[in-house]
Amino acid sequence: MAIEKILSAKGLAVVAAGAGIWMYFSQKPPAHGAEVLDPSGSVARNCSGMRDQTGLLLAKPGIRDGSTIALLIMGRDAASPQPTRVLDARVPVPPDAMLNRKQRQAEYEKARTKLLDDFEEACNEAADSPQSPVFQMVKEGLAHLHARGCGPEQMCYLVAKTDARESVQPELRALIERRSKKLDVKVPPDLAGSLDNTSVAVTFCGAVEVSAHRQPNARDPDPDHVERIWKQLFRDPSIVTFVPYCGK
């Protein structure tokens, strides 16, 4: 009898611990996502790839009921560098209840498809930008996510669809165009860590998706050099990644 009581007590303790872990994760605030689009002539638009990248973002840890996703379009030039937020939507989530599950699953899939359609359509309709204020675009994307409450309790996500070739911020532009292959090139102190991505994982995608209007040039900056420069701009470079194509 004593052994049975001990085993029963241990079983209850395990159940209680499991319930505590579930409550801890369920009480964490939802994650949020944002995408920023560079519609300049130097990079291919590839809106289908951006659609696929949006789908990947929707599957990130922490994206659940209450999560939102936004799309910002890069500003036009030095006179108008501020990006425009063209979409800001709640994320549809798959049903977790068994009641009317088939109907709810169909409604979820319809809402998810519409969201992806909206992002792809906004990408296709974005006006071409004659210049590339990429730095300001990324900065505003991070500010949007922090305004949503992203912080120590929950990781959020920013996707930048761009070749990262800044053409407005003078110091950054000069560093990128220097085309140095040295691994120890440093950005100026006023730029180093100036992009606050605390608790925001950043993905740059599409660097090799060259626009059909731009011919490859021997003077094009080395992609590895561009990545090294940009990572120094972030407060937490360990959660900044570069992938050559969007949606893969």
What is the 3D shape? globular
Helix share, percent: 25-40%
What's the gyration radius in Å? 22 Å
Order of helices and strands: HEHEEHHEHEHE
Structural class: alpha/beta
Mean pLDDT: 86
Q: What is the distance, rounded to the nearest whole angstrom, between the alpha carbons of the first and last residues?
A: 59 Å
Strand content: 5-15%
Biggest sheet strand order reads 3-2-1-4-5-6
Report the strand count: 6
Oligomer: single chain
Show unreliable segments.
Answer: 9-25
Sketch the major β-sheet: 6 strands, mixed
Count of helical stretches: 6
Structural summary, described in words:
The chain has 248 residues and is α/β, with parallel strands linked by helices. Helix content is 39%, strand content 14%. The protein has 6 helices and 6 strands. The chain has a 6-stranded mixed β-sheet with strand order 3-2-1-4-5-6, with helices on both faces. About 7% of the residues have low confidence.
Q: Briefly, what is this?
A:
This protein is α/β, with parallel strands linked by helices.
Features:
248 residues; alpha/beta; six-stranded mixed sheet; 6 helices; 6 strands; 39% helix
Record the SSE blueprint:
Blueprint: H1 2-27, E1 33-37, H2 47-58, E2 68-73, E3 84-90, H3 101-125, H4 134-147, E4 156-161, H5 170-177, E5 200-205, H6 223-233, E6 240-243
Parallel strand pairs: 1-2, 1-4, 4-5, 5-6
Antiparallel strand pairs: 2-3
Helix pairs in contact: 2-3
